[in-house]
Each structure stands twice: as structure tokens, then as C-alpha cells.
Amino acid sequence: MPRVHINIPVSNLEASIAFYSKVFGTEPSKQRIDYANFRLDEPALHLALVHKPDFTGNDPAFDNGQHFGIELFEDTDLSAWKDRVKTAGVLPHLEEEDVTCCYAVADKFWLRDPDGNEWEFWVRHDDEGETLFSSTEASACCAPAKPEPVATGCCPTTPATVNSCC
Length: 166
Hints:
Elements: E1 4-10, H1 13-24, E2 30-32, E3 35-40, E4 45-51, E5 68-72, H2 75-87, E6 94-101, E7 104-112, E8 118-126, H3 129-132
Parallel strand pairs: 1-4, 5-8
Antiparallel strand pairs: 2-3, 3-4, 6-7, 7-8
């Protein structure tokens, strides 16, 4: 079975291992003095953590709302993930219900790892983009648009913007 592979630098390997062990509900598949990985079947993910002592958590590749995510397909699965991480002591920094983002409506919660990487967990409820947005509108979600602050948003790594999240 194929797995998505993600390799991320971490400033504090022990803190990152503790965080991801709680998030995924398992210990690393492999661990060395400067490296750890989680090879998961559910979700099919191979997450590698590479210790970079000088890493500040400020990766320019993630300056524009980029983030990692796990799409779930049932509300009960989303609730189970959220309950498990909360019980393990990892508190979501944002919880959203019926939020419109990326041409879809979803319930979601967000976690932030020790280096500030954002993880989005969500269940999509409406994916009828054409009924939610006009593709000709300059402000359609995910299209470049001038940021305008709003009370809630869907990409918490940057200030929330009107219909230009993700």
C-alpha cells in the first residue's frame, strides 16, 4: 500500500516525538539520535522528523498558509481524533464547524507542532464549489486576493482573509 512521505526539520527532536506520538497514538517506527519516523497505515503516511538544532521553525516555504492535513470521512472519526489528542494533552488551537474554505464546507480542528507546523484535521460536508463560489469572482476561496481580516478563518498560520484561505 502506498504512503505519502513527508520529511520535516525539527529543532527539538524529543519534543516533536512526544507531540507526534500523542497525535498519531503510537511511538515512532524508527528512532535514532537525530532522526525519527512514523510509518502509519491509517492514515497511509511516512512522517520523518530530522533534527536540525539551528532550525527556528520559520520555514519560508510555509509563510503563506501552507500546512499539513488529514482528511477524515466521518464525523465520528473526526471526533475520535480530537478526543484522543485532547486526552493525550494536545489541545487544538482552533476548532471550526461548517467553515467554508477551499471550495468546500467542513468541520475541522487544527494542531500546531513544537516548531509551529500546522496540522488540519477535517471532514468535508459540502464540496459543491460552484454552488458555494463563482469561479469568476476574484475573491473565490484559494484564489489570490488582497487579505482582509475577518473574525474566523481557515488557515491559522497567517491572518485570516476573506475567501483567500488555503
